Amino acid sequence: MPTASTGEFRPGDQPAPGTSFSRLLLRDCEIERFVKGFPMAENANFEFQDIGVVSLARVEAPEVVTSAHIDLLLEPFFSRGGARPGLLEHMAGVYERRQWPEGFTFAQASAAAGALALARAGVDPSHIGLLIDSSVCRARLEPSTAVTVHHMLGLSPSCMNYDISNACLGFLNGMHLAGLMIESGQIDYALVVDGEGTREIQGNTIERLNEHGQGSEDFSENFASLTLGSGAAAMVLGRQTDNPGSHSVVGGFFRAESRHHELCVGSLEHMSTDARALLDAGTDLAKLAWDHAEKSRWMDMDRYILHQVSTVHTAAMIDVLGIDAEKAPLTFPYYGNIGPAAIPFTLAHTADSLNEGDRVLCLGIGSGLNAGVLELVW
Question: What CATH number was assigned to the domain covering residues 245-377?
Fold first, then answer.
């Protein structure tokens, strides 16, 4: 048993009945104070001095899949009652999403966006010191998708490459890490890519609902899978002083509420989501993070690039943050939720409407839950 004076455990001590080993570690590390809102270190806030977005690219998947078509495919499920067609449009506001041709891989999608970003940057591929693939979708556990993209793009053997996976925040995490490595002087340029595809998961979801689905509860659990879209995005980052015309990456923050890590759990086979609880927890985390940030400097941005999920999610985020809905461009109605590619995809989609000096705030919530904010000056 722990000593009465310190509560610490010594070799050979036995925990009290019903006390899990993980619980002992949590107490020993004082995680309880962290979860209650008293972080031990404010290391999730960051600022950059000389980081720029040199180029940005998006690639649309070519095959359009309408929500009306998905409703037709689900006719055997709907015929059993308990759920009705039309909800993807009426509740989520998703009219269309895209798919890649059959056989087109996630790595090919990432590489296509990466090649376009490199061409627009005018940077010799040999100067890329870091490649990050932030895709949620992956065909295997190992090796990384990044090694395949590295090979496809003909990058240098000295170019570090690896995947960063963090649900829908992966691309922002990749930008953050790339900025740190550039500012430290370790590399001159980084390429962050993301390629997402929905053909497999949506096919599996439709087949499962048609064979075994019983009603509204099953439909609700699988609803998010049917709103997903395919697409790719990429970004080249470097020092702003070395790249005239690049767009400044100012800084931002990340926040976590990992007690919600089971609200949305997915694979290519199946994604199970408690949509209502996920929405509530996500908006709560967004409000908590926003209220503890220097939000006064972000209340009058020229654009807010939100992670693209649905009409309900977007309206809730805009309400919680108190921002102008007219400044938050939407892509989900015709492209669906493209996971971590959604923020750079939407940014690239609206880039032509931005003027020099415009201030842009990228905001996302990722399953887990994690929240991220990143400020740019165009």
Answer: 3.40.47.10
